[in-house]
Design brief:
With about 400 residues, the protein is an alpha/beta fold. Helices cover about 40% and strands about 15% of the residues.
Length: about 400
């Protein structure tokens, strides 16, 4: 079996590392050459030269320090290549891939130490199922959950007063695109000894790398921008600390939440074009946001690339390449579910779907999709109105996206 060589020149730019991350430098096999793309290792079980080598392989490493495999639940070469690529790109000590973004979030919370008697302060703007997970799985066994507004200056005093064990935020909130100050939050977390977790799905490592801002664990729903083509499901957690990495590895094994070799192959393929796709998507998103801002049927646009967004200055500091993400939301002046449904049903190019980050432009209605599990009062407290529509901008021609939105808004 060929082994992973994860070394990359330190002077390679991010775009180059995205393209070459996870590639193998294979040993000569005499088979006529080496593949530029790693093959898919579909096997569930791996053999070794002798029983001593098998015994050693259970540790995860060969005697010379190479990665070793025994059983697919404990890892496979494709997932390892994907993990290695994200480790280097995000600047962590290691990463563990999972079968979905929610599985990655679950493992990150467990690795951070959420148990009976511990306390977590989380952003009230989190993805709906993340809040539901914390309530149904952790709060019911004695974990104290506090949801707070991380975009208010008072948050730092609250964190110092509550002294949580874990702090959980998102780089860009769903769907109102609110931005949190990663540097300030991680600084307070170090003061009080809290483990920090950030879901960085929406910003992607192309725009933001939270470990550089002091965070301990970075979560991605790799189903979204990293995969990018709407054809694979997975998640990944990158750790800044070896102790947390070991916990993640143990939970991945025990929970059986591993990423399959087929999905890992697709994730790594998507990663190679991440920079190109996100650059185009961000450029398109800004043009779409500027169009919507001027449309008479639209009351408000939530996009950090707009100068009137409350987090525009912060986003300019935290995000690279002078881009602000490819996700935005807007509110219709007709604040009714019926008006939203009429608009969505009139769309011809933009696809009505609950996911995001694909090459296609996707439109969704948060009250029935991403935040379906939340009560009406909770949606109101989060600022999600009846007329709020989320748009994940794709790589199509921006003029075509705008034409489709215009005809649906004008109908």
């Amino acid at each position: 079996m060929t082994q992973q060589n994860t070394s990359q020149p330190s002077d390679w730019n991010l775009e180059t590392r995205l393209v070459h991350g996870g590639r193998k430098k294979a040993r000569a096999t005499g088979a006529g050459g080496q593949s530029t793309v790693p093959p898919i290792y579909a096997s569930t079980t791996y053999t070794h030269e002798n029983i001593e080598a098998l015994d050693q392989a259970f540790s995860g490493k060969t005697p010379d320090g190479e990665q070793a495999y025994v059983y697919a639940r404990q890892g496979n070469p494709n997932a390892y290549g994907f993990e290695s690529a994200l480790t280097h790109i995000e600047g962590g000590v290691g990463a563990i891939a999972f079968g979905s973004g929610m599985a990655a979030i679950h493992a990150a919370l467990l690795a951070a130490g959420l148990t009976a008697g511990t306390k977590i302060v989380a952003s009230r703007d989190l993805y709906g199922p993340t809040v539901t997970l914390m309530r149904k799985l952790f709060s019911t066994v004695g974990t104290q959950l506090i949801l707070a507004d991380f975009c208010q200056p008072a948050i730092y005093d609250l964190l110092r007063e509550e002294e949580p064990d874990v702090i959980y935020v998102e780089t860009i909130s769903n769907p109102l695109t609110r931005i949190v100050d990663l540097d300030a939050i991680s600084a307070v977390a170090r003061e009080i000894g809290a483990v920090t977790i950030v879901d960085s799905t929406f910003s992607t490592p192309y725009l933001t790398r939270p470990i550089e801002h002091g965070f301990d664990l970075v979560v991605h729903s790799a189903t979204k921008y990293i995969s990018g083509h709407g054809d694979s499901t997975g998640g990944i957690v990158i750790s800044a600390k070896n102790t947390l990495l070991n916990q993640l590895r143990d939970y991945s094994n025990l929970l059986g939440a591993m990423l399959s070799p087929f999905e890992a192959h697709l994730m790594l393929r998507g990663l190679r074009t991440l920079a190109l796709r996100v650059e185009r998507q961000c450029s398109n998103a800004l043009q779409v946001a500027q169009f919507l801002q001027q449309h008479p049927a639209v009351a408000h646009v939530h996009y950090p690339g707009l100068a009137n967004h409350p987090s525009h200055e912060l986003a300019s500091r935290l995000m690279d390449h002078e881009h602000f993400g490819a996700l935005l939301s807007f509110e219709l002046k007709d604040q009714s579910r019926a008006a939203v449904f009429r608009f969505i049903n009139k769309l011809q190019l933009c696809i009505s779907a609950t996911s995001l980050g694909d090459v296609f432009t996707l439109v969704s209605y948060p009250p029935i999709s991403s935040h379906r599990t939340l009560q009406a009062r909770e949606l109101q407290d989060m600022g999600i109105s009846e007329g709020c529509i989320r748009l994940s901008v794709g790589i199509e021609n921006a003029n075509d996206i705008i034409k489709d939105l215009n005809q649906a808004l004008s109908a």
